[in-house]
Design brief:
Blueprint (H helix, E strand, L loop, with lengths): L1 E4 L2 H8 L9 H16 L4 H5 L6 E2 L7 E5 L4 E8 L6 E9 L2
Parallel strand pairs: 1-5
Antiparallel strand pairs: 2-3, 3-4, 4-5
Length: 98
């Protein structure tokens, strides 16, 4: 899938393994792993199929966004732009759900 970043530091976090972005090393590693998974996926249905990701649509005023588990505490927040085959995943941020 195509990927865009809402915040440039997240793109740097994906590319440069020496950066931590203010997160623990395990969160940075999980983020890079999820980004590889996102880039390799043909569409978002694959995320729903992988139960361990806890991929879900958010509710309320964030109903156009989705979350994906990085670890027990942190979630990757995403949205989608466009239609297949040119759909783009927009990485919005990493959030603490506790």
């Amino acid at each position: 899938m195509n990927v865009a970043f809402e915040e440039p530091p997240l793109q740097k976090l994906e590319i440069d393994k020496s950066l931590d972005g203010g997160y623990s090393p395990s969160v940075g590693k999980a983020f890079r792993k999820r980004m590889q998974l996102i880039r390799d996926a043909p569409n978002e249905r694959d995320f729903f199929a992988m139960r361990s990701l806890n991929f879900e649509r958010l509710k309320g005023n964030r109903s156009d966004q989705y979350s994906m588990r990085l670890n027990d505490q942190w979630r990757l927040i995403l949205s989608f732009r466009g239609t297949a085959p040119n759909k783009t995943v927009v990485v919005i941020g990493i959030e603490d759900y506790h």
